[in-house]
Amino acid sequence: MFTGIVEELGEVTGWEDLAEAARITVRGPLVTSDAGHGDSIAVNGVCLTVVENADGAFTADVMKETLVRSSLGALSVGSPVNLERAVRLSDRLGGHLVQGHVDGTGELLQVTPGAHWTVVRVSLPVELARYVVEKGSITVDGVSLTVSGVGDDWFEISLIPTTLGLTTLGRKGTGEPVNLEVDITAKYVEKLLAAGVVPGRQEGDA
Asked: Strand pairing of 104-113 and 154-159?
């Protein structure tokens, strides 16, 4: 589990194609400072398992499904990536609850710089649209953000200079893909309502 607060801007330093998978090496001195074999680190919002950790970099295996369903397949040596270690139960929840399980990908449609923030419009897959609401939370490339506007097939986020400077979002241009993870709470509520379960109502209540 993560919070969507990027700890470090890392860099892909190695890429090895395997049968139905890839093994990537990512430089991130901060996130690897206390990482061990089997620990979880989010890379652009995708939860990956540390296989090796040495000299400020970690290696992880990425299966084909993840490469296809996320934007990780578009990475190459030299690509910057957002990194976050798994949250501890004692940590502050600075963003929102993020699983590191990408629901789909979007594409940057428009980037509009402003005096104090930049508005970014992102395409929204139709199957995810029902989970995205204005002022709600969404994770974009591992960054916890508030939705500032939403349409049938797009949403907007407003990025402050700190977010632009410390994450990959300040380096992306129109047409580039981003990983999306919607708020898990919305999906649970949908499933409960579909099953006819009303929160707070006990069996037998009128």
From this structure: unpaired
